[in-house]
Amino acid sequence: MDLVVGIDIGGTKTKIGFVDQKGKCHEKLFFRTQEFEKFDEFLDKIKESIDELKARFEFPVNIIGCGIGAPNASSRTGTIENAANLKWKGSVPLLEKMKLRLNVPMRVMNDASAAALGEMLFGNAKGMTNFIVLTLGTGLGAGIVANGKLIKGYDGFAGELGHVGMTLGDGRLTGLGVRGGLEAYVSATGLKRTVLYMLSKYMDPSRFRDIAYSDLHGEDITKAAEEGDPIALKAFDYTANILGLAMANFTAFSQPEAFFLLGGLVNSGKWIIEPSKKYFEEYLLEVYKGKVKILTSGMEGKTAAICGAAALIWEEQ
């Protein structure tokens, strides 16, 4: 059976799976990215994981290629360049070093751009020629498709919308030092920071008053919102307001048919998606109102990033 290895390198987790031509992920696993101080040891773990997954199959598997999505990855050079949410800084030779461990056709791309290709090939963007994918995880990434083509930019770094400044003055810093950058507010990490902000601003009772930042997780904030915790509800509303404004701004430069939201923050469901839609419509220019959809990924939630990475190979078959 012909399969592609899809690898999604995230700031929190690295996910690996074997994906067929229809976008079905047959076997998958993940491990924590931050456990590896040295990049070579991290790549060794990837190779070990691929071998482990391949051994699970009860029939022969032919790996026809490997697609890798990673933050700040250049499709032209095959490197990761100064990723905000990874330990390895500078120019990291991902493609060159990974090819020493796995001798198959291989492509590397910014993770959100890979997700956009996956959405077009396997998900809800089939038949669409203008859309934007926003990955809301540890940080915020974007993949932009305009007139049927993925916007890559001069050397593969187009779409760094997570580092677009959204505030003036004393805004939060992103991992790349952008004052008021979007991902400092709209991401799993940004939501945690907003909970702390709301705790300092309001006196409402909240379960979070007795929880340290390092012990705070997105799932906890969602559960608290479901139970009516006022700080959790304020945090989601604040986050959705900024996301709605950002999407309205992004609409003005490419007029997408739809935005696709995926990643850990999207698992919060109605608490982030419904208010984002409301604020989005409020901020849109009149000419765009009612024309742009906000959708979740059509790829299976837990394997969407893996399938997006695998699409780098499948799109060329």
CATH superfamily of the largest domain: ATPase, nucleotide binding domain
Task: Provide the succession of SSEs.
Answer: EEEHEEEHEHEEEHHHEHEH
Note the overall shape. Answer: globular
Termini gap: 15 Å
Structural class: alpha/beta
**CATH architecture verdict of the largest domain:** 2-Layer Sandwich
Topology:
Elements: E1 2-9, E2 13-19, E3 25-32, H1 39-56, E4 62-70, E5 80-81, E6 91-92, H2 94-99, E7 106-110, H3 111-122, E8 131-136, E9 140-146, E10 149-150, H4 188-201, H5 218-226, H6 230-254, E11 258-262, H7 270-283, E12 293-296, H8 304-314
Parallel strand pairs: 1-4, 4-7, 8-11, 11-12
Antiparallel strand pairs: 1-2, 2-3, 5-6, 8-9, 9-10
Describe the structure.
The protein is an alpha/beta fold and 317 residues long. The chain folds into two domains: 134 residues, ATPase, nucleotide binding domain (Nucleotidyltransferase, domain 5, 2-Layer Sandwich), CATH 3.30.420.40; 171 residues, Nucleotidyltransferase, domain 5 (2-Layer Sandwich). The chain has eight helices and twelve strands. The strands form three sheets. A five-stranded mixed sheet has the order 3-2-1-4-7, with helices on both faces. The protein has a five-stranded mixed sheet with strand order 10-9-8-11-12, covered by helices on one side. A two-stranded antiparallel sheet has the order 5-6. Helix 5 crosses helix 6. The two termini are 15 Å apart.
